[in-house]
Amino acid sequence: xxGKRSLDDVRAYxxxxxxxxVDADGLRPTARDPFLQQxxxxxxxARLQPGASLIxxxxxxxxxxxxxxxxxxxxxxxxxxxxYVRQAEKLLAGAANPSVGFAQGxxxxxxxxxxxxxxxxxxxxxxxxxNVTDWxxxxxxxxxxxxCVKPGGLYLVSEGWTExxxxxxxxxxxxxxxxxxxxxxxxxxxRNDFEKEAGRYFEIVDYVSLGFYIFMSRVYQPVFxxxxxxxxxxxxxxxxAKLQASPEVRRTFDECDYAGVYVLRRRG
Length: 268
Known about the structure:
The chain starts with 6 loop residues before the first helix and ends with a strand. The chain contains 10 helices and 7 strands.
């Protein structure tokens, strides 16, 4: 899919979004679907190694960083938007975890972060690369993230996969639902392209599909609640996120999975 905004536009959007903890719908701007965020974090948390150092790139308000730090050791959240770094530091003040810190940084140039903080055992990113405006810059960002990870370390990543959006829309059309549109400041990636580029630095260890949750929240719920509008905070989504963690449903509805989690290991 083609990006529609410049990097300055994307930065302006998120700078504006960071002025409030929740949006007009009472949802976090960085994770408007709280149960999708929960499913992604659940999948990542299962791969964290106790005591390992972790860098959370594109950490937003820092909630995922602080959650992951319950398992990991030295933990650093990095975000491009200064206001989000301040939000995260404010949240951290109430968490009382001295092993966690936050810093402003650009995923297109993480050398200053590595210079100050060194490399890490684990890197995570959730919907970070999709805020970069073209594929050449996304490739640059993948290389920069790789530079933060120690040989043998892990990169856990959930972004936006084009094939899943396309599969979701085929299902939605079948059930008489309108097209699911990717927001204009996001640029999804084809999984084959991502795997090829990431393969320069990492080997694929696993892929955790979130197709069941996507189907339940983006197809079943809209059909069930019609003519009322679907809601990200609907109880169906809450139940779907809990069921998503079950091995019995994990490989279902893969065709509409646009948010699954790659588990990648840094090559030596």
